[in-house]
Amino acid sequence: MDTRTIEGGLMTSSGRGVDLSVVVPMFNEQDVLPLFYLRLRSALDQLDISYEVVAVDDGSRDGTAQLTQSARADWPQLRLVRLLRNSGHQAAIGAGLERSRGDYAVTIDADLQDPPEAIGPMYSMARDRNLDVVYGVRKDRSSDSWAKRTSAHLYYRLMRRLVGPQLPTDAGDFRLMSRRVLRAVESQPQNGRIYRLIVPWLGFPSESYGYVRDPRAAGSTKYPLSRLLRLAWDSVTAFSAAPLRLATWIGGLSAVACVALIVAVFFAEESGRTVPGWASTMIVVMGLGAVQLICVGLLGEYVARIFTTIQARPTYSVGYDSQDEERRDRDELMVVEPEPAVRPPAGT
Ligand code: UDP
Ligand code: MG
Prior knowledge:
alpha/beta, 8-stranded mixed β-sheet
């Protein structure tokens, strides 16, 4: 059961909050923000629905938060949530989604690679066809570099094996979800929660909406190769125990190879050929050492995961939410009616 209280603002017939929440993770995006807000606002104002934009400032060190605060002055639906430190793209999305109030929520990058104009059609698709998830799927990745396209292709092939065939190819984090899906996601542990895997895995009714991914409008990517590799590694180890089995397979194969080698050495000895023993011994010792190290490393990865899950440390901490401030202001303005004095009936 959802026990969270309804946090102020526009109310809809469903009683929860607004029709649509737009969650935008932002890390040092001051160069693109003015244009992004302009396009997002004109796209959302055209829709005849109540909405909120949850801008999650993921510990930016530039003017992202200041720009958002000043944009709020004449855009009441814009809300700013600031994380205390840079917590990463997925954690920022999580912070925004968990604080969102919409019957539906869509996550979109701030760099205009995902067109805000697609939100309207995605929302209508979900409403008209009774869908819980609408994936924004890149029709063409020509704006990405060759390295990024190739690594993405490999990533999706691998993930499809782990998650299942329902994983849409080339669906990033531009995705619309119903409140039902958000509740299901929230019931999963927060650590290692990778939305692009967990949402398809849940298996709610879904469809894809194709769009052309534009190049970044301004600023530079916040996903260097090291972070991409981290995401791929996390995706595998957070989602499945398959690598543990892989280690067992490698171990098994090397054991077989070892037995074969022993037999070969035995026959070589029998036929009187001298064996240069030192080299083969070294190879076996080193080979087995490597296999053991791989296995120990993989075990360590999972033990670390158990450790962090048991610690249940939050993946992000919110330092500020413009909505809390608005609520405080409203509470202060609220006139409290004085209770009528109750006099005890005479004679008792
Ligand atoms: N982002 C974030 N925290 C981070 C890194 C990125 O909130 O630590 C945001 C970023 O501001 C952008 C989105 O995540 O809105 C996607 O990042 P980016 O466009 O740099 O990634 P790319 O499209 O190059 O993969
Ligand atoms: Mg981008």
